[in-house]
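Structure tokens please, single chain.
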Amino acid sequence: MKPFLLLSTRDHEGAAEGEYASFLAFTGLPAERLHRIRLVCEPDADVELGRYAGVLLGGSPFNSSDPLEAKSAVQVAVEARLRQLLDTIVADDLPFLGACYGVGTLGVHAGGVVDRTYAEPISAVRVTLTDAAAVDPICADLPSSFDAYVGHKEAVRELPPGAVLLASSADCPVQMFRLKRNLYATQFHPELDAAALAQRIDVYKYEGYFPPETAEDLKREIAAADVEASHAVLRRFAEHYG
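Here you go.
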């Protein structure tokens, strides 16, 4: 069986390792079947997409919608590499699932509008599936609504042409969409449980996602949420394409 590929854009070592552990846990894949490339460390890494059953893209400290002059040289290099990879992934309809930063990256690449209109603070939100999700192979067996973790400064305001909306929340109309048959993106984090999100809160405490003095309160709030159903998105993706 082919392995999957996780593309990581996190420069913080702890956050990058925690992200990989989370994707392992909730895809259900063994380590030998989930390869990882940290694009912040090796943006020019040779990637043979044909080796992989599917590609996963995790979250990021980057924002796709930031003006070019506000982006670091590392972000510019990473996003240029992602565009190159997505050129092939989208053209060939290769199985892809992007989480959080992935929704912005795929959305922008495919012609959607991504901006800060529908930002959401770190929290657990109620995600509701659309009628289209009922016949989608990844979403069909999920509950019609479930809680999931979010925390983002940007979101899709206008879907890319041809995209199918699969899920929404009260304050963010695009929580999940599909392009073609095999290209998926979620605004919510299907890879996060409470412990992993608590780690992110510590890592990004001073990055503008929340007032730093509220960090411990946030950890208590997220710990009370049941987001187990959201993890099924990753598991179903790995099973369907594995």
